[in-house]
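Re: that chain you flagged

S.,

Sorry for the slow reply, it's been a week of failed gels. I finally had a moment to sit down with the sequence you sent. For the record, here it is as I used it:
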Amino acid sequence: MDIRSFNRDAWDKQVEIGENPWTKPVRPEVIAAARRGEFSVLLTEQKSVPDQWIPPLKGLDMLCLACGGGQQGPIFAAAGANVTVLDNSPKQLDRDQFVAHRDGLKLKTVEGDMRDLSVFSEESFDYIFHPVSNVFCPEVLPVWREAYRVLRYGGNMVAGFMNPTYYIFDITNMEEKGELNVMYSLPYSDAASLSPEKLEEFKKNGTPLEFSHTLTDQIGGQCEAGFRIIGFYEDSMANMPLSKYHPTYIATRSVKE
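Prediction finished late last night. Pasting the structure tokens below so you have them in one place:
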């Protein structure tokens, strides 16, 4: 299966449906506030990124990695950064361009795979913002290696990702009935675990395929790529039974030295 194409089409359909909160562009008043230096952004679902994780943005060369949707990228651009948004979904990138045109922002968008940043030369960026998105990618180690390559020395990468324990449960049953039934071993893959009928249903409904990654690959993989992790927090998914017992998201701040 061509996972990248499947998920590109799925996210494009999510934009068309218009119900997914991560496809909804920020409002003009959010951009106006960001121009005044008043903003908050999300790497995970609920907790805002700490202020100390965001460097001075004026003139900063920044990559919003797998970060389309008309949200974080335009906010950073309004706050003064030179923003490039890379995403697999053309229609998610259209959301960023929509905000840029609406509010007079300078913003570059690039369609691409988060595992392959060869369109960028080495040390192209000062800061990488990578919200929860590698869950839609079957391999995460190339993401960290490429991010390290294109980041300048002394630069930071902030990243959000799923806690892998989320994927041991029957997700559908958990969402619909609130029951926590252990069903899968880790690492989990929609592509490998779902029936052909369920995969066809995902395709019809525009549901992206998800993949868990081990903490060895998520955290150890950053270290292996050359990063030093200097910040960490956890977050929870709203209205999810598992959140009563365990955080569902992890966020890290790393530096290239």
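What I noticed first: Residues 3-164+211-256 form a domain with the Rossmann fold fold (CATH 3.40.50.150).

Talk soon,
D.
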